[in-house]
Design brief:
- The complex is a heterodimer of chains A (242) and B (265).
- Chain A has 242 residues and is α/β, with parallel strands linked by helices.
- Helices cover 39% and strands 25% of the residues of chain A.
- Chain A contains 9 helices and 10 strands.
- Chain A has a 6-stranded mixed β-sheet, sandwiched between helices. In chain A, strands 2-1-4-5 form a 4-stranded antiparallel β-sheet, covered by helices on one side.
- The longest helix of chain A has 18 residues, at 171-188.
- The two termini of chain A are 33 Å apart.
- Chain B is built from 9 helices and no strands.
- In chain B, helix 1 packs across helix 8 (191-217), helix 4 (83-121) packs antiparallel against helix 6 (135-172) and helix 6 (135-172) packs across helix 8 (191-217).
- Chain B is an all-alpha fold and 265 residues long.
- Classes of the chains: A alpha/beta (242), B mainly alpha (265).
C-alpha cells in the first residue's frame, strides 16, 4: 500500500502540496485527477525520491520513505516503476537496449534469459519483436510510450506510476494506452497510480478516482460515486467528459 | 555598481565551487566503479574523433599567426633565425593550449552540455534514477572521462599541428628555411616548455569536462534552460580556463625557478 500523510511541498513562493493525504490499496487502479499545475506530477515524483517533501510522511508497503538516503531509495525505485509523461528513452540506445538497460544494471535476469525477458515485455505492450532493433527516433510517439512502459515493466515493479500517460496522444492511442494500463494491472497484479486530467479514461478504467486541487484532495470515490459528486471542480471535469 | 560586481564575483565563486564538487563526485565515482570501455570509446568517438579536423585546422592557423607576428618583431632586430624556437615556445607554453581549448570548449563542451541538458529536461536522467541506477555512473562518468581524454589528446594534436603550421607559413610566406626553423626549436623549446603545454592541455581538458557535465546535468526549465546552460557553460569554461592559465603559468614558472636555481637541474 502507498500512503501519503499530510505531505506539504513548496517551490519558492508557491505552495504546491498542502497537507496532502491519501492512500492507494494493493492491486487497485487509482486515477489522480486535477488541473494543470496543481501538484499531480509532484505527488508522483515524491514516491520515487525525485522530489522530497517539506513536511509529512510517505509510506510504501508500511515503510516510511520520506527521509531515505539516495542509496536507500534504490529499493523503493525498483518497487515503484515510473512511466514519465514523455517517453524518456535514451536516444543513443535502440529499443532492445533501452528495455534491457534496467534488467542488466539491476541483474533482474541472468544474461541467457535477458532476450526472452525483454521481448516478452515488448509483447505485453503489443509491440512486435521487430521493433527491438529500431532507434527511439524511428518510432511514433505512441510506440515510444509503449517502449517506455515495457522498460518499466522489465524491472518487475509492484507499483506502476503513470505521469499523464496519454498526453499528446490521439484518441485511439489514448484508448490503447488506457486499456494497456488496465490489462497489465490485472494481468500482472500490480498497483497502478495514474496521474491524468482525462475524466473519460478515469471513469472507464479506474477502480477509484481522486481529484486534487490547491495541493489537497477535494473529492474521491469509485467512478459511480464520482458521477454523482457535487464538487464544482468534479462537475467541471464531468462536463468536459459528457 | 560595486554591489553588482560583488554579487557577480560571489556568484562566480559559488559556481566554481559547485563545479569542483561535482567534478570530485564524478572522479570518485570513476575510481570506485570505473566505466564501461565500450561506452567510453563511443563517447570518445562522438566528442573526440569528430573534432580532429576542427582542431587540426585551428592548430595550423594558430601556429601560422604566431609565426607571422613574431617574425614582424624579430625582423626589426635582424633576429629571424630565432623564429622557429620563439614561435614554437610561445605556441606550446600559452597561446596554443589557450586558443585550442577555447575552440574545444565551443565544440566538445557545448555538445556535452546540450546533450546532458536535453537528457535532463526530457526526464531521461530521472528515468535512469527511477530504474534504480545512478545517472552519474551510467551517463556522466563516461562522458566526463571521454571529454578529459579527448580534449587532452586533441590539444596535443593541435599543438603539434600549430608547430607544423608555423614552419610551413615561415617557409612559404616569410622566407625562412624550414630546416633552420626546425633546428632552432630545441634551442628555445625546453622540457619545461613541453611540460607547460602538456600540463595546461590536461588541466584545460578537465575544466571543459567538469563545467560542461555540471552545467548539462543541472539543467532545468525545458529547451530555454538548455540554451541558457550551454551559454553559461561556455562563459564559465572560458573564464575558468583563463584563471587556470594564469595560475599554471605562475606555478610552473615558480617550479622551474626552484628546480633550476635551488636544485640545480
Amino acid at each position: 500500500m502507498i500512503e501519503f500523510k499530510k505531505v506539504s511541498k513548496r517551490f519558492g513562493q508557491k505552495q504546491v502540496l498542502n497537507e496532502l493525504s491519501f492512500h492507494v490499496q494493493r492491486g487497485e487502479i487509482l486515477f489522480l485527477l486535477g488541473r494543470s499545475g496543481v501538484g499531480k506530477s509532484v505527488t508522483l515524483r515524491h514516491l520515487v525520491g525525485l522530489v522530497r517533501p517539506d513536511s509529512g510522511e510517505i509510506f510504501v508497503d508500511g515503510r516510511e520513505i520520506t527521509h531515505l538516503s539516495e542509496s536507500e531509495f534504490l529499493e523503493v525505485r525498483r518497487k515503484c516503476g515510473m512511466v514519465f509523461q514523455f517517453p524518456a528513452l535514451l536516444d543513443s540506445l535502440n529499443v532492445y537496449e533501452n528495455v534491457a538497460f534496467g534488467v542488466r544494471a539491476l541483474k533482474i535476469r541472468p544474461g541467457n534469459e535477458e532476450r526472452d525477458w525483454v521481448l516478452e515485455k515488448l509483447r505485453l505492450v503489443h509491440l512486435p519483436p521487430s521493433v527491438a532493433d529500431l532507434m527511439p527516433a524511428q518510432l511514433s510517439f505512441g510506440m515510444q510510450k509503449k517502449v517506455s512502459l515495457a522498460r518499466t515493466l522489465a524491472i518487475h515493479p509492484a507499483y506502476l506510476l503513470f505521469d499523464e500517460p496519454t498526453t499528446s496522444l490521439d484518441p485511439v492511442a489514448t484508448r490503447v494506452i488506457h486499456e494497456l494500463i488496465h490489462s497489465l494491472s490485472r494481468q500482472l497484479h500490480v498497483t497502478s497510480l495514474v496521474i491524468s486530467h482525462d475524466m473519460d479514461g478515469a471513469l472507464e478504467y479506474a477502480d477509484r478516482i481522486l481529484v486534487i486541487d490547491k495541493g489537497q484532495i477535494v473529492a474521491g470515490g469509485t467512478p459511480a460515486q464520482m458521477r454523482q459528486e457535487k464538487h464544482p471542480l468534479v462537475r467541471d471535469f464531468l462536463g468536459g467528459s459528457a | 555598481m560595486m554591489a553588482v560586481l560583488r554579487n557577480s564575483a560571489w556568484s562566480t565563486i559559488g559556481e566554481l565551487g559547485k563545479t569542483t564538487m561535482f567534478g570530485c563526485e564524478v572522479v570518485g565515482n570513476l575510481l570506485r566503479y570505473g566505466t564501461p570501455f565500450r561506452g567510453l570509446l563511443l563517447q570518445m568517438y562522438v566528442v573526440g574523433v569528430r573534432s580532429i579536423s576542427t582542431t587540426v585546422f585551428t592548430g595550423f592557423f594558430v601556429g601560422a599567426i604566431m609565426a607571422i607576428q613574431i617574425h614582424l618583431q624579430l625582423r626589426d632586430f635582424g633576429a629571424q633565425a630565432f623564429l622557429g624556437g620563439l614561435s614554437a615556445s610561445v605556441t606550446l607554453r600559452n597561446v596554443g593550449p589557450l586558443l585550442i581549448a577555447f575552440i574545444l570548449s565551443g565544440k566538445v563542451g557545448a555538445y556535452t552540455t546540450a546533450e546532458l541538458g536535453t537528457m535532463q529536461v526530457t526526464d531521461q536522467i530521472s528515468a535512469i534514477r527511477c530504474l534504480g541506477m545512478d545517472p552519474i555512473r551510467y551517463l556522466v562518468a563516461p562522458r566526463f572521462l571521454a571529454v578529459v581524454v579527448s580534449s587532452f589528446l586533441l590539444l596535443v594534436i593541435g599543438l603539434m599541428t600549430a608547430i607544423g603550421g608555423g614552419a610551413l607559413i615561415a617557409a612559404l610566406d616569410l622566407g625562412v628555411n624550414t630546416l633552420n626553423y626546425v633546428q632552432n626549436i630545441p634551442t628555445i623549446v625546453t622540457g619545461w616548455s613541453i611540460l607547460t603545454g602538456v600540463a595546461k592541455s590536461f588541466v584545460f581538458g578537465v575544466i571543459i569536462a567538469a563545467v560542461s557535465c555540471y552545467r548539462g546535468y543541472t539543467t532545468r526549465n525545458g529547451a530555454s534552460g538548455v540554451g541558457e546552460n550551454v551559454k553559461s557553460a561556455s562563459v564559465q569554461t572560458l573564464v575558468t580556463i583563463i584563471i587556470a592559465d594564469f595560475a599554471l603559468s605562475n606555478w610552473i614558472g615558480g617550479l622551474m625557478d626552484f628546480c633550476t636555481e635551488v636544485l640545480g637541474w
